[in-house]
Amino acid sequence: MLFHIFALAVLAQTTQIHNAWADEITTPQQASPNVTPTPTAGQEQKAADPFAFADFTWLNGNSRQSEFPLDSKYFTGEFTFDANYVYDFANPQDHTLDGSTNSGRTNELQVEQLGVGGDFHYNNVRGRLMTQFGMYSTMTPRNDSSPSRGQWDLADAYRYISEAYGGYHWDVWNGINLDAGIFMSYIGLCSYYNYENWVYQMSYVSANTPWYFNGLRLQTFPSDKLKVELWLINGWQSYGMFNEAPGVGWEVLWRPSGDISVVSNEYYGHDALGIPGRMRVHSDNSFQYKYYDNASNALSKGAFSVTLDIGCENGGGVSCANGNPADPSQNFIGFMVYNRLWFSKDHYGLTVGGGGITNPGRYLVLLPPINGANAYSGTPYFTENPGDQFRAIDGSVTFDVMPNQFITFRIEYNHRQANVPYFAGNGGMTPPGGNISPSGSVVSGWAPDLTRVENRITTALMVRL
Fold this sequence. Notes:
By secondary structure, the protein is mainly beta. It is built from 4 helices and 18 strands. The chain has helices at residues 15-21, 136-139, 154-158, 204-207, and strands at residues 75-88, 109-122, 125-131, 161-170, 176-184, 212-223, 226-233, 247-257, 260-269, 279-293, 299-314, 331-343, 348-358, 391-404, 407-418, 423-424, 450-451, 453-464. Strand 6 and strand 7 form a beta hairpin. The relative contact order is 0.15.
């Protein structure tokens, strides 16, 4: 089974070791060349840093940085900025965009994400903090219904944090890390940070699966080409626990050469709020291959990615595949494929691709924000009941201008369509005069304007230091 990209957040005692493992996705150029000095008498030879044997900055979902200007002996700072302008051909009157985790409004210039933080590293103790200001701080928490169970408003407590964890590194094999806190999941191949992706609006497989986990992870590196990671977490992209059982999962990442990355994530949990008897399983698998690399030519690189996901829910009135009206099927099948070309020594990029999903029961479909609806409130205008069908496809063309490794200018065309009205039409999703309490409720004499097709153009500026 194939295996998926996730974060290698490995920080060591020295700056050199940290630079190989500091980020959630390993950036090999941070590491020293694959040459180990001859140890002196009585000195033990250090194992090679994970995935430092080749340049993996070409990967979808991975940082393309080779320099880190905010690096120091004990702390490597990081600054990320992402702003966009989305033109929706439907021109919704309330400027609302639906079905996306990385864009929320149209026909406006918006700061999507502003992150300040970095990695701490001293004496094998490690930690990472990244903030999230801008649209992410409201769009991400609204898709988690777990804070509605109990008090202390977890959505507000965590809304300005994208990553926050501490841990320890052991010099065993090619490294072992144990971390506790909020960390990236990378189920669905694409990164939470758009700067690291080949596309801005990722396909449904990525947009409808978790961006973060809250709990424990154990990263093990049996070799410099293999990572096995275990999770014990609150649940499926949740700050709290939906029922009484935690979620469990694992990831295997294998990079046999500098041209291939194979990754898989497997997950099991009980993630239907208030339905403890319903269990969820999910398998996410990606393969990436760099098929061309010649910096001396106008076409400098070529690579593609293929992602396949399958999962289901069972129990509590649904089944994985029965299809019985009294016990309807509730599953998820999705794919996405992208091809990426780089030009003029990687200063320009062109990506073409797309994907599709089928998700009866809609348990992973992003709920439209009709009248302020969120994952807990739901909305009668777009139900997510057992048996409710949802199928969708999308395609995109993305062009990047990358003057250097710290900034990307992007323009992208997206076409998306579904089998049911889902996207924002010209009338929008907001009642006249604004949202009416309670959120997600029926508004007398009004209905949202939903359409089955969406076409839009996104322009974005992204910075990473």
